[in-house]
Structures are given as C-alpha cells and as structure tokens.
Amino acid sequence: MENKKIILPRLRYENAPEMDSNLNVNFEEEKALLRNDDRDVVLDLMEQFATERAACDRYKLYGKMKMVFRNLYAGISDYDYLKERLALVGDGSDGNFTGYLPYDEFAFLRNDLYYETTEAVSLSGLTGFTGFSIITSGSTLHQTITAIIAPQFNWNIYLSYVYDNDYDFPMKYTLTGSTSLPFLSGDGIPFRVSQTSYKYKFTSPVKHGISQGEYLVIDGKYYYINSVGDSTYRSEDYVINILKSQVSGATFGDIVIGKRCSDIKDKVNSTSQYYVHKHKTLTSVDEYILDKTGFESPIWEDEKKLLYENSAGVNDYLVIRNRMESVLFDYKEPFLLSGITNNLGYTPTELYTTVIFRNGNGYFKPYLKVGYSFHFHDSWVDEHFDDTNPITETGMTYTPFSISGFTFYSGNTIPEGTELYGAFVEYNLLEMKERIISEAFHKFAAEELIFDHGQISGSTYSGATATNPIGLIYQPHYRFKLRELSPYIEKSDQNAVIDNLPENAIYFPDEKVWRWRDLYDDGYIDPDGFGTDYPYLNDIHYIHKDINFYIRNEQVYTNKKDGIISFYKRGDTNICPE
After folding, report:
1. Average pLDDT for residues 220-228, to the nearest whole number?
2. Range(s) of the domain holding residue 191
3. pTM of this structure
4. With 80 as the cut, is the pLDDT of residue 122 above it?
5. Beta strand pairing call for 472-474 and 441-444
6. Are 174 and 385 in contact, with CB atoms under 8 Å apart?
7. Which of 128, 137, 444, 487 would you call most buried, defined as having the most Cβ atoms within 10 angstroms of its Cβ?
8. Residue 53 dihedral angles phi and psi, to the nearest 5°
C-alpha cells in the first residue's frame, strides 16, 4: 500500500488560508468488476480557480503615464529651422528671438506631423475629371515625422527586469566649493562629516537605513552607533552620531563612505552589500502601444502663444511651450515569466516598465548619463556627471546627420537584451532583503551649438562646464510587482527533510541552517498588507500602474537637499519642483 503524508493547507506558510482537502482512498483487490474511483472527480470551483491562478505565469502589464513637466530653459538658436519654432519669451515684435524649445521635443506623442490628404473636388459629372490633388501638411526640412512613428520618436518604452548587480559603478559625491570624493557603488553610501567637542556627526544625503546599536563600517573599521538623528524632524533617517571616545586616533575627511553592519558577531553575513541594479530589456520597440487618454481633464492648462512675428517673418505664428499629456501604454502580448532569473538567483518577483529618451530630432547631446538622488544639488552641478566619469548608458547608440552646417545625433531604438543601469541598492544577506537607496535617474542636456540656454556657463549654475552642462532629469524604470515575498524569514536545519525548497533559499554553513522567504500566492494578502491580488482572467494576470512621469529642470528644481524638502516644509511658493 502507498503511504501518503497529508500537509494541512494552513501550514503551507504563515497565516495561509484554510482550504478543504480531498483524498481518494482505493481499496486493494485482486479482482474488480467495476472501478469508479478515479473516474469521478468532484471539482471545487473556488479551489480550482486558486490552483490555476497560482500556477499561472503569464502577465499583462499596462497603465497610464501623465507627463509632469514645465519647460523653463529659455535660450537662443542659430539653426533657422529651430529658431523659427521657438516659443518666444516675448512676441517677436522687438526682434528678440530668445525662447523655449517647442513642447513637441519632449512630448510622448508629437503633434508636428507630416501627412498627405486630397483636395476636395466639386464635380457635376465624370467628364473632365483628371484626378485628385495631393495636399501636404507639416515639414520635412529637418525630419519627416508621420503619425506611425510619432509615438516612438521622442520616447521608447520597454519591458525589463533586474538580472545582475554592478559593484563597480563609478560615482562621485560633490559638495559646494568643489569638494568631491570618487567611489564605487560597492563601497557604500556617502556621509558628510561634522563634529562637536564630544562626537562625530555623519549626515547622509539618502536614508542610511542604520539603527542605533548597529555599526557603521568606514575603511574596514566598525564604529558603534551611539545615536541617530538630531533636533531636526525626521533626521534619524539621515544622521548618525558616534562618540569620540570610541574613535582612538582616527580622523575623517569632509566626506566618508560607509556601510551598515547589523550584527557585530556575524560581520560576514550582517555587513550590507551595496550595488547598482543591471537591467536587461525583454521586449523590442515594436511590442507596445501608446495612445492618448480620452475623457480626462488635466489640472494644468496648455501654454500657447500667438506671436506677432517669428524669426522667419511669419506673422500670427502659434507656438506651444507646454502641453498637458496623459497617455495609455500597453504591451501587445502577455509576458511569460519563464526561463529567467533575477540578480539574486531566483525567478523575478518584479518586472519594470522602462522609458528611454530617444532624442529623435537630435537637438540634445548623444548620451544619457546615469545618476542618483544625491547627485542633484540646489545651486551646483555634481562632478559625477562630468564627461570624464564613464556613467553613460552604453546600450544607447546614435546616428549622426548634418543640415546647414549643424550636426545632429538622432537616437536609435535599442534591441531586446540591451543592458541598462538601475537603482542603487543595499542588500543584507542575513535579512535576505534589498533596500532601494535611490532610484536611477537619466540626465540629458541640449547641445549648446543648437540651443544655448547657458547650460555650460558657470555663472549660470556653479560647476557647469562644456563637459558637465546643466540638463534635464527623469526616472527611467518603474516597478511592477508580480508576486510578494513574505516579510518574515523561515529557517530549517540541514538535517531536516524539506520538499520543494524555495528558489530563494540560502544555506548558511556557519549556522548549518537554510533560510528563505515564502512566496505568497497571488490573491493572498497577509494581515500586515503584504501580498498581491491582481485581476486574473483567461489564464493571465493583469497588472495596472499609473505613472507620474516627472522631467525636472536641474537648474530650477530646488528641492534637492537631504530628506523631504530638507526636513522642513517650505512656504515659498516661488520655489517649485518643475
């Protein structure tokens, strides 16, 4: 007789729901005239639905993106085609043609399209009809932009996942006065150092994730955290205090790089690792749909102006400086989550919608530079973005073309499998959990020979040079959670017999135990709110996300200090994020 062991459904993982279990018991006989046992199956619809839902690995990602941007860089251009189309600061009557780039250079869906139509013909009969006349609208002097390519001309959307880590991504952290410290992503996070008569104060521009009683690792030495925070609201997330009495003979510079250690008795496993996510695209540019959102009223008005005269002498010329956009995006086919592993070695629990600025018209420099939240300052440009620091997205390529003596670099679409940089992350092996220190940001800048708004002038913005210009900033990667790992850690000693050990299980040889986090089934939400519950239909999980897509002007965006609005609530309404 076959021996079977029954595991109660509520014991599958912590707080698992109760479910009815059925077991068919067959009587053994040497002869049987009729057997009906396994031919009659009673289905519980709810149980069958839950079983199919848990086994499904097809995901449909879709959502809405709202452009949040204000076009604030006013400049000049010697390129006649662009000069004629600038959204002027004045009205052109005074011969001053300083203005803003037309909004179409930033739009998800461009409106300056080239198209052909037929002229209306009035006929009383077929006699004398010689055919239709073709009428064109739009320009082909710079680029030919049709309705078919318009959704992919400025921006491209891809599906991606985190497949690896980069511990050697080069970074710099710059203070005002050009005090700068280069380091690698694997070294840790930066801290500014100040001191009193009895303590050192370490202030991080990002949340340090360290608690009182833990340790800060600097240059391989472990320092006990005596306290966190100061008298400022929420400063405990950014400030660490260490008494001088425990620092024997050590001195610190203006900036140090530190790591977190949660347990001094287990330095190997409890000292956090730091790295940058490496993404890999899963789709090509032809595998998504981008369209306008209907029946939506934006909270901002379009900024249009009817010029008295543009630089070409055209009267009553309409220019658009800002236009409110909401678009819908949808991948054409569901994604089958199979055959890939993430940076931690198991099937990904997250996918990403990745938005890339393509620069179709070529008015901007031929690169996307990668930075993080602590690389943006209120009154100076961080040396991190200088051309001497290799931080560009190498997967982006550009095709040059020349018109009227000007050279433009139009971005190419990227193929499936292209590698891109992602978030700056802390990972603690003992806790088996990643913490996002900062999302990745892309920075792009206008080519000053084509559109000059003072982006390379140090008098406009401290630290700006020809190799480190002022630019625009946006976040490229947006996280879609597929499944949720439990907030608690399960463990078992090496002698225990465990069937179906999870993919994320890790063996700790010093303790001789296995540790893992349970993977919650879709549809299950624990009492603390962890879990996922997405619509499931036709063997597909449908995951929706609304994205506020911010493009920030580096020079004007002045909310870039430590914490949220520098720990304080600003009352100056003239200081706006965009």
Report:
1. 95
2. 180-270
3. 0.88
4. no
5. antiparallel
6. no
7. 444
8. -65, -45
